[in-house]
Design the sequence.
């Protein structure tokens, strides 16, 4: 393909995407295909001869679209949002075109320096304590990770490094292996599955502590767990607190957990993957009180802040522990400016890194803080509209406090009613919401996800839920649908949690 063709192909693809996004409301949010559908639509082998891009663009509609779950449809109310915006898309395109790999300053100074600047812009927007910022002149700083999952693992590895150094000072005769084998980590039974996974990957037992009636991890629970592990000769090392849990968007009590972690010398990592975007609005910032106690803080602009996947913002108070945990310092990677700017390869797991800060720059400049605040406020307002509709119908109950863009509800009465309602909704495919278990009760999670969601979409969803509920409540015999409808699996589905469900505040830790 030469540049002339590239210009045509690229412009046609942009036109296609604009049409796609502008007309998303008209597409069914869930696909109707069966597993294996795509194999019949494309040849078994790669073509011998080059094809025409026009044919391939046609195939996007013929082959791909039938199998797409439209995450940006205003009828998508499952999981949590994933971001999508025109500035974000163009940012992705520019970063692909430049295509540099910025693992050290010299491999593309702009890649490192824009990231340093954007992480400061973003940190200031949410009013993170200054010691987290790159511009603080201290050891703190921000970095863009690929996902909240990686940030949690990176935090764990830094925590491990810090604990090993601390304990070696107290017990010079203990070797590293002995110390590492004693380390333990803590989180709540509501934390994202990626937190448990970080424990697995980092070889540190992750205790999933019980939460209170509002699904929050409390200080006393953590204190007790630390005490009992110390009595067993173990070394408490790492705590992951969640601001906005995946199941019910609950907020762990940071102001209780923080002082305990600081006093007991545990690394405190804060996972605010979804809800963290709301802190660009002053009225939500009280929910991050206690962040000053944290050693690392993370949220996903790729979830709720209109920056296309992947862009997970992570700040640390002392980057030295990351660098020490990750630095292998081969001679060929050295350059003469080492030390003056971060060498981000020591702040992450892979060596290579994309120019992710471009899309963050695009979104921050083209929306401005005000535009982003408007987006958050509008979505929270739409969740309130859905809440009002639910409250007007006495057959439904709201299960947990409404938090951010999430509403958890169920039909009053036996679980089978809510289960049946969900099966009907999945069968009719007009909207997409997922079920969860909350204290052993079947519930539904309704999330305002798409950037283009409007009041009429909330009304549409409510009408669909209400009329399906009517069918459930008035049918004598329960309807049984084939079990195949759940082929869209929840990201990180746990093995003890069948049927594509989240488990919230139950006796297991299963949930997103
Ligand atoms: C979505 C979510 C995650 C996982 O985010 P990734 O960026 O996909 O790894 C982690 N924690 C919470 C609370 C989440 O809601």
Sequence:
């Amino acid at each position: 393909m030469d540049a002339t063709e590239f210009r045509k192909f690229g412009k046609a693809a942009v036109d296609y995407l604009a049409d796609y996004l502008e007309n998303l409301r008209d597409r069914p949010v869930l696909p109707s295909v069966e597993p294996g559908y795509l194999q019949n639509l494309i040849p078994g082998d790669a073509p011998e001869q080059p094809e025409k891009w026009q044919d391939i663009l046609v195939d996007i509609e013929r082959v791909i679209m039938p199998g797409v779950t439209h995450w940006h449809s205003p009828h998508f109310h499952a999981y949590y949002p994933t971001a999508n915006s025109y500035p974000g898309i163009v940012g992705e395109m520019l970063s692909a075109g430049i295509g540099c790999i910025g693992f050290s300053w010299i491999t593309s100074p702009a890649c490192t320096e824009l990231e340093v600047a954007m992480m400061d812009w973003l940190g200031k927007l949410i009013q993170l304590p200054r010691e987290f910022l790159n511009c603080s002149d201290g050891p703190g700083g921000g970095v863009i990770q690929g996902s909240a999952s990686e940030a949690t693992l990176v935090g764990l590895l830094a925590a491990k490094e810090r604990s090993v150094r601390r304990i070696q000072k107290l017990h010079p005769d203990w070797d590293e292996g002995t110390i590492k084998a004693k380390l333990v980590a803590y989180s709540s039974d509501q934390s994202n599955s990626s937190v448990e996974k970080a424990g697995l990957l980092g070889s540190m037992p992750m205790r999933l502590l019980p939460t209170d009636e509002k699904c929050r991890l409390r200080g006393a629970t953590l204190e007790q767990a630390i005490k009992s592990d110390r009595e067993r000769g173990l070394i408490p090392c790492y705590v992951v607190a969640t601001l906005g849990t995946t199941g019910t968007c609950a907020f762990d009590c940071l102001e209780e957990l923080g002082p305990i972690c600081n006093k007991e010398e545990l690394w405190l990592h804060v996972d605010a993957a979804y809800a963290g975007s709301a802190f660009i609005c002053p009225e939500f910032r009280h929910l991050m009180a206690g962040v000053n106690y944290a050693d690392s803080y993370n949220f996903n602009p790729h979830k709720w802040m209109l920056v296309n996947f992947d862009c997970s913002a992570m700040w640390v108070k002392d980057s030295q522990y990351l660098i020490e945990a990750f630095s292998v310092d081969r001679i060929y990677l050295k350059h003469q400016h080492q030390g003056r700017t971060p060498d981000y390869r020591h702040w992450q797991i892979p060596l290579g890194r994309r120019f992710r800060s471009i899309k963050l720059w695009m979104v921050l400049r083209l929306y401005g803080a005000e535009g982003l605040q408007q987006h958050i406020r509008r979505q929270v307002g739409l969740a309130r509209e859905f809440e009002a509709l639910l409250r007007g119908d006495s057959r439904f109950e709201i299960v947990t406090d409404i938090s951010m863009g999430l509403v958890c509800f169920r039909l009053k009465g036996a679980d089978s009613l809510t289960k049946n309602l969900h099966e009907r909704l999945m069968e009719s495919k007009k909207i997409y919401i997922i079920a969860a278990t909350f204290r052993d009760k079947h519930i539904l999670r309704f999330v305002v996800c798409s950037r283009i969601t409007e009041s009429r979409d909330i009304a549409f969803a409510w009408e669909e839920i209400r009329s399906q509920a009517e069918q459930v409540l008035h049918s004598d015999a329960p309807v049984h649908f084939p079990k195949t409808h759940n082929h869209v699996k929840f990201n990180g589905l746990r093995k003890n949690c069948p049927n594509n469900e989240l488990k919230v505040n139950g006796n297991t830790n299963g949930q997103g």
